[in-house]
């Protein structure tokens, strides 16, 4: 998430319009501190069981309206 767009920078609109829908959604969510903290916690929690990992992803994604690729 280090590549966040600066929504106030000159040229932002041109860059934003070049994003596809998932990329734009990711940029929008990256501005939400609750999402960022939850995502960081999810990525730092290493689960070896694939089924448990999918449950964790689904639980995290549900409130944000996301679906992670399997």
Automatic annotation (TrEMBL):
Superkingdom per UniProt: Bacteria
Domain Transcriptional regulator-like, first and last residues per copy: 6-69
One Pfam family here: Trans_reg_dom
InterPro entries: Trans_reg_dom
Record's protein name: Transcriptional regulator-like domain-containing protein
